[in-house]
């Protein structure tokens, strides 16, 4: 596979106009660690999730022996991460479908707006990716001959409303777009939605006028007032058309349901044993809990076996999960002409036999890795907030230099922050950094859930010396929860660490005597830990998970 080059993120010595390179905060390395017991398994097994951390709404396709998968990215940039695998369990991040400002804009959006659930399909030598840019353009299609990129400019679909579009290629040469939208007439209750279908002309890349058709109104049984029918995908098998959808919302009531019909001109009939996947009947807390399962996509392997990827969460305590919604994999069976992922009441297994244990595939390290910034290009795993601009990033001499922008993490504007996905409830991230000689600039580590909920562990020079500080932002209100002044005016390097342990978060710095807790150095708290549940999706709201990364700021 050819190496992906993201031209919009080129880092060959560019800075913002008017910004001084001497203001840059320099990071020598970054390390991410997870306790091995949380992810290591025997060689013939794999552990769910296969994409740990905030990788929701998976959609999968296959070209020969190669599988490709894409996830929602909301307002993170670059967006729409594309993964490759040959065995369904080892996945390598190979690029992004949205990698430049000409494709779309997330300016001024909250982190949970932007790109919602995509569908990825391979057809007749071309990869098609259809998705929604919420509050920033609506539904659109991208195409590519190589899923690692480059991807096309968007083809916008103004007639297609709602969210979560799917593209289906029939064996008669026709193509269709299914999607979530408002129901016919007035909604009968809160959460009442519908699934609609358009015929799609592949030559003009437009929907066929007047082809809109209602597929599902409300859900499996509208008399029960089902909510948030969404995420449709259509497949054809043995002369049947199958429609699978998420139902119940992406929280604890999340489920996957399925319908079928012999003709797209006839009504879809729901499966009498729906749902085909859910965890809503199981209590919390429980050991190795997986919850909120749904939003599934199906794939058939070259050997004829079927599999499903879907999103779910790994909650701690009752229903907190800082890692967001993640991508899981389970085998799928066909029973009396219907697909089944997991019977109701059965917990999702965390450790399973590998589908293809003899097939090797490259994989991105999610749980434990280190970056020394030896490449002049920014690594693919790093994402920013809203903007595709990276003029404030510069990699040189084995260091990443972040020239601070004026917008803080609480802003919905351009922010000088680069993060990676938190991949487990227990972790440690660490960096060694160098502050510029000028005052009025800070830099350090951030644990970022959204502009309204995050922690910033930074350092700055003042006229009285070097100050370390921890800021906590809850519901948009920022407070300084810890400060400490170093004896040296300009130490050669400052080493910071953030540790997470489920509901607790710790902030440490290193001196010649070893690691010291920031929170034990301040009179503002009697505990060495702060509350990490503010970084959980359910508490902070929205649809994203926590990212952990590097930040510089004009103070």
What does this entry look like structurally?
There is one protein chain. By secondary structure, the chain is an all-beta fold. The model is unreliable at 1-20 (pLDDT under 50). The protein is built from one helix and 42 strands.
Please supply descriptive tags for the structure shown above.
single chain, 555 residues, mainly beta, nine-stranded antiparallel β-sheet, six-stranded antiparallel β-sheet, 1 helix, 1% helix, globular
**Largest sheet composition:** 9 strands, antiparallel
Name the average pLDDT: 93
From the spread of the alpha carbons, the general shape counts as: globular
- Poorly predicted spans: 1-20
Strand content: 35-45%
The assigned structural class equals mainly beta
> How widely separated are the two ends?
44 Å
Task: Compute the number of strand runs.
Answer: 42
In DSSP terms, counting alpha (H) and pi (I) runs of 4 or more, how many helices? 1
**Rg, Cα atoms, Å:** 24 Å
Q: Helical residue percent?
A: under 10%
Summarize the structure.
By secondary structure, the protein is mostly beta strands.
Which helices and strands occur, and which strands form pairs?
Blueprint: E1 25-33, E2 45-47, E3 59-63, E4 66-70, E5 76-77, E6 79-85, E7 92-98, E8 114-115, E9 119-123, E10 126-134, E11 138-144, E12 155-156, E13 163-169, E14 175-181, E15 194-201, E16 206-207, E17 213-217, E18 230-237, E19 240-247, E20 255-261, E21 269-270, E22 277-278, E23 291-300, E24 306-313, E25 326-335, E26 338-340, E27 351-353, E28 369-371, E29 384-385, E30 393-396, E31 399-402, E32 417-421, E33 426-434, E34 441-450, E35 453-462, E36 465-474, E37 477-485, E38 494-501, E39 504-511, E40 514-517, E41 530-531, H1 537-540, E42 547-554
Antiparallel strand pairs: 1-28, 1-31, 1-33, 2-27, 3-4, 4-6, 5-29, 6-7, 8-10, 9-10, 10-11, 11-12, 13-14, 14-15, 15-16, 15-17, 18-19, 19-20, 20-21, 20-22, 23-24, 24-25, 25-26, 30-31, 32-42, 33-38, 34-35, 34-42, 35-36, 36-37, 38-39, 39-40, 39-41
């Amino acid at each position: 596979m050819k190496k992906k080059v993201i031209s919009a993120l080129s880092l060959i010595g560019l800075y913002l106009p008017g910004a001084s390179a001497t203001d840059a905060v320099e990071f020598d390395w970054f390390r991410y660690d997870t306790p091995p017991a949380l992810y290591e398994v025997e060689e013939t097994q794999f552990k769910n999730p296969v994409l740990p951390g905030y990788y929701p709404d998976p959609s999968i396709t296959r070209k020969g022996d190669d599988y490709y998968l894409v996830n929602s990215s909301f307002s993170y940039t670059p967006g729409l991460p594309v993964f490759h695998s040959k065995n369904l369990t080892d996945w390598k991040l190979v690029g992004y479908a949205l990698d430049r400002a000409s494709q779309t804009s997330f300016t001024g959006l909250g982190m949970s707006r932007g790109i919602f659930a995509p569908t990825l399909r391979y057809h007749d030598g071309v990869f098609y990716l259809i998705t929604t840019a919420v509050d920033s353009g609506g539904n659109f299609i991208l195409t590519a001959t190589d899923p690692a990129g480059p991807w096309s400019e968007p083809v916008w679909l103004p007639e297609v409303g709602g969210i979560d579009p799917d593209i289906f290629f029939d064996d008669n040469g026709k193509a269709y777009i299914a999607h979530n939208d408002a129901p016919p007439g007035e909604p009968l209750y809160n959460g009442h939605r519908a699934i609609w279908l358009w015929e799609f002309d592949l030559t003009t890349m437009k929907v066929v006028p007047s082809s809109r058709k209602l597929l599902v109104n409300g859900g499996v049984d509208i008399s029960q007032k089902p909510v948030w029918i969404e995420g449709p995908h259509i497949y054809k098998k043995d002369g049947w058309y199958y429609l699978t959808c998420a139902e119940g919302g992406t929280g604890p009531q999340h489920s996957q349901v399925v319908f079928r019909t012999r003709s797209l001109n006839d009504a879809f009939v729901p499966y009498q044993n729906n749902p085909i996947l859910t965890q809503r009947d199981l209590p919390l807390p429980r050991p190795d809990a997986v919850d909120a399962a749904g939003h599934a996509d199906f794939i058939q392997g070259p050997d004829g076996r079927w599999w499903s990827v879907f999103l779910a969460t790994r909650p701690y305590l009752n229903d907190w999960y800082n890692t967001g919604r993640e991508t899981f994999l389970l085998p799928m069976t066909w029973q009396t002409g219907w697909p089944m992922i997991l019977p109701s009441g059965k917990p999702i297994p965390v450790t399973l036999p590998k589908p293809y244990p003899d097939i090797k595939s490259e994989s991105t390290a999610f749980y434990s890795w280190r970056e020394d910034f030896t490449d002049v290009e920014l690594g693919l795993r790093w994402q920013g907030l809203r903007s595709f601009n990276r003029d404030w990033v510069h990699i040189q001499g084995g260091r990443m230099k972040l020239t601070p922008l004026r917008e803080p993490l609480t802003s919905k504007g351009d922010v000088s922050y680069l993060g990676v996905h938190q991949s487990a409830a227990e972790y440690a991230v660490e960096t060694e950094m160098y502050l510029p000689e000028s005052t009025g600039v800070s830099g350090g580590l951030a644990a970022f859930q959204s502009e309204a909920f995050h922690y910033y562990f930074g350092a700055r020079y003042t006229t009285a010396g070097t100050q370390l500080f921890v800021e906590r932002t809850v519901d948009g209100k920022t407070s300084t929860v810890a400060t400490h002044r170093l004896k040296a005016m300009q130490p050669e390097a400052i080493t910071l660490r953030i540790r997470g342990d489920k509901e607790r978060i710790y902030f440490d710095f290193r001196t010649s005597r070893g690691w010291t807790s920031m929170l034990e150095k301040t009179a503002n708290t009697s505990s060495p830990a702060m509350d990490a549940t503010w970084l959980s999706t359910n508490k902070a709201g929205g649809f994203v998970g926590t990212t952990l990364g590097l930040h510089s700021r004009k103070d």
